[in-house]
Write a structure and sequence with these properties.
About 25% of the residues lie in helices and about 35% in strands. By secondary structure, the chain is α+β, with helices and mostly antiparallel strands.
Length: about 100
């Protein structure tokens, strides 16, 4: 799997902003088949930072209903990456 295919995009919510400020953690949506080692290597290569730890979560898609039609959003995988002290990802700051 290619490095840029593993990281699909950042997750930017109020909760992730608090984690970033207090604990130096950033969150990404990642490929569902990627493991922690692949995610660590991809983040270190793409953003040129040192990673302390990676935690992954499988998020189930929500059930959506419109009238009588019932569907659901896709399942996806989230990675919470803890960076080493002194490392920051500029992508998340001051845009």
């Amino acid at each position: 799997m290619r490095t840029y295919d593993i990281i699909k995009g950042p997750i930017d919510t109020e909760k992730t902003d608090i984690q970033k400020e207090l604990h130096n953690k950033v969150s990404f949506e990642v490929d569902p088949t990627a493991n922690r080692v692949e995610i660590r290597k991809a983040v270190e290569k793409i953003f040129d930072v040192k990673v302390k730890s990676v935690r992954t979560i499988h998020v189930k898609g929500k059930v959506k209903q419109r009238g009588r039609i019932i569907g659901h959003k896709k399942n996806w995988k989230k990675a919470i990456v803890t960076l080493m002290p002194g490392n920051r990802i500029r992508f998340f700051e001051g845009v």
